[in-house]
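From the pipeline queue, job 12 of 40. The input is one protein chain; the requested action is below.

Action: predict structure.
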Amino acid sequence: MNRSRAVLLAMAAAGAVLVPPLPAQDLGGLARSDLPPAGFGTLRQEDVAVTLQTATLEVQILPLDERVIRLLATDTYDALHRLTTSRADSVDAVARRYGVRSPVLMLVTFYGRQDRARFEPETLTLLSQNRLFRPIEILPLSPLWNGRQLNQRETASAVYIFDEGVRVLDPMTVAYGFVESDVWTQVVRLLDRERSSVFARAARQRP
């Protein structure tokens, strides 16, 4: 069993709310804000997650936007969908407190690469549309989260809540401390291709 699937199974009963679509953008006759039908995706979680590595940790960041997770294979989508629905009340409360209409949710998982690996959750940031975003709230999903320390092979996960200014379907830079990645630019292109394929597969299933 790979890391991502193990984490999903462990957290299938936890999560947050769905994120409403952003304004439409043209995509070969489709709008990128159109919600893909569930059950037709083929991507793996590893295909769409951003992974950062430090000397002691690996950090995986995965958007929980339905427009993204519906493009994943069915079992992965089902687990993430349960994750995004089971903490709706908590996320709604955070959104009201900060005056955010459409919070952007990310599943963030820290993996220990060696014993006594310390992690600092608040240092994870996003650069989107030339704006720097820090999480407005973090909802832990793992008992080990509050200790902020992992042994080798241990994991700790949380749902990060960001301001609605983060554009999930556009390129962005993900950073943890001094380590950053622009791989989301490539992921966006992959999502665009898969979105078109999902709509085509769904159309072939229609009577």
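Job complete. The two ends are 37 Å apart (CA to CA).
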